[in-house]
Amino acid sequence: MRTVGFLVNPIAGMGGAVGLSGTDGGVEEAVRRGAVPHAAVRAARTLSLLRDEDIAWCTCASPMGEDVLTGAGIDSYTVLYRPTVPTGAADTTAACRVFLAAGVDLIVFCGGDGTARDVFDAVGGEVPILGIPAGVKMYSAVFAVNPAAAADLVRRAGDIPCRDSEVMDVDEEAYRSGRLTARLYGYACVPFVPERIQGGKQVFEQQDEERAKDDIAAFITEIMLPETLYIIGAGSTTARVMERLGLAPTLLGVDAVVNAEIVASNADERTLLALLDEHPRAKIVVSPIGAQGFVLGRGNQQISPAVLRKAGLSNLIVVATPAKLAGTPLLYVDSGDAALDREVGDSMLVVSGYRMAQRKRVVHSE
């Protein structure tokens, strides 16, 4: 029987839908803006697929694990750590040290990049770890691509190889102000199966890359319709579209444009839904994260399932340069609504230049 240590960062990802670009140090502001916890829901999807497995679970008292296990129908477990309330990074590291001392075979955590760093601080490479994605960004390569993939990896742990995978340190304050500042924090041991574990983010800066962004921006602005709401997602390629219109983009946030004028900068989910009430015709322009391939569910949670359904999936426009697509073999959608993700289909066209597109395979959340 395998022994698995399990914990949840209950505040992970709360800042995403409300436009905070992260939750570390910003929980009160996230709650003020109407954010609700969702990490436990993401974790429960994984655990519900594992309740019949022969696993000895070790966990933390609520709200860092026990409640999620019981909610997923798992009633046999051992509570090894009782966190402070409200919980913090120190609870994650302390719990993981207790798991390590108990001799667990694997530590499964639900959170984002900050949680991954806290887990790594406690265990380094001494025991395999696996993340259930629930944060805003998740640039580290220790996360399963979605909750169902996490369950598959836990089920197969011990029978599949582990690899050294990047844990990234992302500056939260810089990220909230629109600057991506990241450095390699360390390498963790992670169970690995292709298409089940996400890659680390890559940044492409070649001269041809900049020319391709200009070509994409020229094409998108050329086909923009009047009296239509354009929701422009995060990233340097979509930012070039804004710049082509003579507008200042929110590089790591979501902007809304009508008739080449900004109607909302760094918009949250609530703002986007209100704008869609005012503007029934809408388009959403997003770009996948380099190498990871996530179109939905990473860094753009403001474009929520409710926003996508209201705008219509047929109005989703994906853009990416040829260099990014060459390093991104698959696209992923993990919006948080599995039924909606399936509606995306098995492939999508990606605008990759001026009147040019490539068709890429899509992997769904479930």
Architecture overview:
With 366 residues, the protein is α/β, with parallel strands linked by helices. It folds into 2 domains: 2-191, Rossmann fold (3-Layer(aba) Sandwich); 207-363. It is 31% helix and 25% strand. It has helices at 27-32, 39-48, 66-71, 89-101, 113-123, 147-156, 172-176, 207-223, 236-244, 269-278, 305-311, 322-326, 338-343, and strands at 2-8, 55-60, 77-81, 106-111, 129-133, 162-170, 182-191, 229-232, 255-258, 261-264, 282-286, 294-296, 316-319, 331-333, 347-353, 356-363. It has a 9-stranded mixed β-sheet, sandwiched between helices. It has a 5-stranded parallel β-sheet with strand order 3-2-1-4-5, sandwiched between helices. Strand 2, helix 3 and strand 3 form a beta-alpha-beta unit. Helix 2 packs across helix 6 and helix 8 packs across helix 9. The model has no long low-confidence stretch (mean pLDDT 87).
Q: What is the count of structural domains?
A: 2
**What is the CATH class name of the largest domain?**
Alpha Beta
User: Given the C-alpha coordinates, what overall shape results?
Assistant: elongated
Helix coverage percent of residues? 25-40%
In the CATH hierarchy, the third-tier topology of the largest domain is known as: Rossmann fold
The ordered string of helix (H) and strand (E) elements is EHHEHEHEHEHEHEHEHEEHEEHEHEHEE
Q: How many DSSP H or I helices? A: 13
Main pleated-sheet profile: 9 strands, mixed
Order of the strands making up the biggest sheet: 10-9-8-11-13-15-16-14-12
Structural class: alpha/beta
**End-to-end C-alpha gap:** 26 Å
Please count the beta strands (DSSP E, at least 2 residues each): 16
Q: What is the residue-averaged pLDDT?
A: 87
Query: Whole-number radius of gyration?
Result: 20 Å
CATH architecture verdict of the largest domain: 3-Layer(aba) Sandwich
Low-confidence stretches: none
Described by its quaternary structure, the protein is: single chain
Report strand %: 15-25%
GO molecular function, one term: NAD+ kinase activity
Organism: Methanoculleus formosensis
Protein name: ATP-NAD kinase
Keywords: Kinase, Transferase
